[in-house]
Amino acid sequence: MIDTALATVLDRHRRDGTRLMQILRETQEALGWLSPDTLGDIASAIGWPRVRVESTAGFYSFFHTRPLGQYRVLFSDNITDRMLGSHELMQALCKKLWLEPGRVSEDGLVSVDTTSCTGLCDQGPAALVNYRAISQLTPERIAAMADLIRGKVPLAEWPTEWFHIEDNIRRRDALLDHGLAPGEALTAALARGPQGLLDEIKLSGLRGRGGAGFSTGLKWQSCRDAPGKEHYVVCNADEGEPGTFKDRVLLTTCADLVFEGMTLAGFAVGARKGLLYLRGEYRYLLEPLEAVLARRRQAGLLGNPIAAHGFDIEIHLGAGAYICGEESALIESLEGRPGKPRIRPPFPVTHGYLDQPTTVNNVETLASACLIARHGGAWFKAIGTEKSAGTKLLSVSGDVARPGIYEYPFGVSIAQVLADAGAAGVQAVQISGAAGNCLADDEFDRRIAYEDVPTAGSFMVFDHCRDMFEVASNFVHFFAHESCGFCTPCRVGTAVNRRLMDKLSAGHGSPYDINEMYKMHRLMQGASHCGLGNSSTTALFDMLNKFKPAFERRLHSLEYEPGFDLDSALSQARQMTGRDDAGAHLREDE
Amino acid sequence: MTAKIKLATVSLAGCFGCHMSFLDIDERLLTLLELVEFDRSPIDDIKHCGPCDVGLIEGGICNAENVHVLREFRKNCKTLVAVGACAVNGGLPAQRNHLDLGDILQEVYQTSLGLAPGSAIPNDPELPLPLNKVHPIHEVVKIDYFLPGCPPSADAIWKFLTDLIAGRTPALGHGLLHYD
């Protein structure tokens, strides 16, 4: 007998297995967790083998296949949250609730744990409570939170200001100052015709804003030219790169522009359906975005066969997996499977969602396309540098006076951004998140552009008080947690690096351990299956080169050092035998 | 080729299976003897290892004596090789790692059925004490090469040794790597 709440969810999704992610999330929101019985019911309803449903449910951090409490508090564990005291706040909350991190309280009321960057670095420390974002945590808020949890106060009755998320837009340029009314870009595009629009996009030199910088015109043209029953447009709003939050702000302040960009892409490639993949951490944006979609439908800007060429958009929510930012993993997730990157080629432009030609574009890329449709490719190309047309949104966080969103034409220097954000005494800037490069202060004259310092938009600043080893360690732990486990170089390599960093951190390190990390970097760069593995040691490699003393000062000696304390490894045997002779000890210098 | 390579081998927390696989190189053993001279090894029963070119270690580290022997090898061998799953990862002996050592000793020597009256946990200083957990050898000393397998096949061991002796970085390649 299927639970009524579950039956409602299943019916809403037409018992369609490709919608499994949404089925699981909505079921969990209704029932609290995904029990073996629930998963069995879902499997038989969608006609999938149970093991496939379990493998999806087990893959994503935000799905629980065991009860994790009526309240689940997840502290964002990005380095910027840590710098703002998130670790101490988590300890304080655990102490007040008589809990250990990662464990569910005896009465099943609450569990407290960490999660990867929640995209609130400009207003941290942040946490998710039952997957609702709370920013600007303070000891006072933590104390009040403990009382609310113990008093079993429903989340809906918690102070509303806790859930208020700031936009913190500090500098606007062509995109944030777009001045376009809903439908304006679309009308211009319809007048140009699909190929006319494509030609303008190509002329503009627009490149992907998600980091890789692939030509948008080329991608759309390849997708348009690929044969298929249907074509699809996917907007990648799985903004998981630590330190990035520009897509959150675009979706909050310019949702119309993003949806209109998707509609343009659909017009250009010949798609009737668009999917927005929203990261689970941005769950709170779902209802406002649905409202924008409804308004656009009413205005004839979606679904309308003439004004919107029959195009409509649906929102899919992720469930806490960084790897889904990789386009083929994202498509797997859209189809209800674990987010493991596909083997490429074939590329999504020919074989994407449901094996049909699909263009996957970043939120910012799609929004920028509206400017091109309205003002033309030549206008857009005049902004920025020769190989990097247009503007870039930077998510600035860390040791700056004014964290937030800064939009610049491409070509702006690192030093300029630092000056505008009010940074002083900076020793390093981590560009493009944990997967990007780390720049030291002698490189701050370099410029944000594909030809110099390419970026997906994350810009984390560390002043001279910060220990760069701690920064490296945070990123290494992040990748060990987020590796999808599909390929051995990444699954094992990220775990080896975590062990080596922990060994150094515990004071057992030697130069051999540092050498081993260099070896891992070389191996993983070439041997990993996807970009996650390939880029997971980029920051570590930069920091080992540019901030080596931060690592070396932790070395125990220049000789090889064991990974654990040998003498205390005999403690239990000594206790059980009552021995304390010389043979019952292992001296370090023997 | 001037002098012969000096080679030492030992089995720590292992089952001697890797050594048996080593013997499986069969008549190639005679070729090997023209290239190497054995120091400490079960093949000659030398008790302590002297200065050597290559040391092959089978098995992980489960007690204090293993640590002493491993350190002796590291001190004396220019190149130290972890041979087989137990040396590389801890292997089968490490399956006890999820149990508490105190509980194991108590159950084996004091509480299980059929023990002689007055049985106690052995505490003779002659006996090496077991470590709380079994460790792979690279957690205790620097290891230069890893030869995986349970056991590595005779062909793998042969390829590895002949590479090493010829001055090539050992590479097993397809067909010679076995984890099962």
Short description:
The complex is a heterodimer of chains A (590) and B (180). Chain A is of the alpha/beta class.
Sequence-ordered SSE layout with sheet pairings:
The complex is a heterodimer of chains A (590) and B (180).
Chain A: H1 4-12, H2 20-31, H3 36-46, H4 50-59, E1 71-76, H5 79-83, H6 86-97, E2 110-115, E3 127-129, E4 132-134, H7 139-150, E5 169-171, H8 184-204, H9 216-225, E6 232-237, H10 246-253, H11 255-269, E7 273-278, H12 286-298, E8 312-317, H13 327-334, E9 358-362, H14 363-375, H15 377-381, E10 391-398, E11 404-409, H16 414-421, E12 426-431, E13 438-440, E14 458-463, H17 468-482, H18 488-505, H19 511-527, H20 531-535, H21 538-546, H22 548-552, H23 571-577
Parallel strand pairs in A: 1-2, 5-11, 6-7, 6-9, 7-8, 10-14
Antiparallel strand pairs in A: 1-3, 3-4, 10-11, 12-13, 12-14
Chain B: E1 5-11, H1 17-23, H2 28-35, E2 36-38, E3 52-58, E4 61-63, H3 64-76, E5 77-83, H4 85-89, H5 101-111, E6 130-135, E7 145-147, H6 154-166
Q: Can you walk through the features of this model?
A:
The complex is a heterodimer of chains A (590) and B (180). Chain A has 590 residues and is an alpha/beta fold. Chain A has 5 domains: 56 residues, no CATH class; 95 residues, 3-Layer(aba) Sandwich (Glutaredoxin), CATH 3.40.30; 211 residues, NADH-ubiquinone oxidoreductase 51kDa subunit (Rossmann fold, 3-Layer(aba) Sandwich); 84 residues, Up-down Bundle (de novo design (two linked rop proteins)), CATH 1.20.1440; 31 residues, no CATH class. Chain A is 42% helix and 12% strand. In chain A, the strands form 3 sheets. A 6-stranded mixed β-sheet of chain A has the order 5-11-10-14-12-13. A 4-stranded mixed β-sheet of chain A has the order 2-1-3-4, covered by helices on one side. In chain A, strand 3 and strand 4 form a beta hairpin. The model of chain A has no long low-confidence stretch (mean pLDDT 95). Chain B starts with a strand and ends in a 14-residue tail after the last helix. Chain B has 6 helices and 7 strands. In chain B, the strands form 2 sheets. Chain B has a 5-stranded parallel β-sheet, sandwiched between helices. A two-stranded antiparallel sheet of chain B has the order 4-6. With 180 residues, chain B is of the alpha/beta class. Chain B has a single domain, classed as 3-Layer(aba) Sandwich (Rossmann fold). Classes of the chains: A alpha/beta (590), B alpha/beta (180). At the A-B interface, helix 23 of A face helix 3, helix 5 and strand 6 of B.
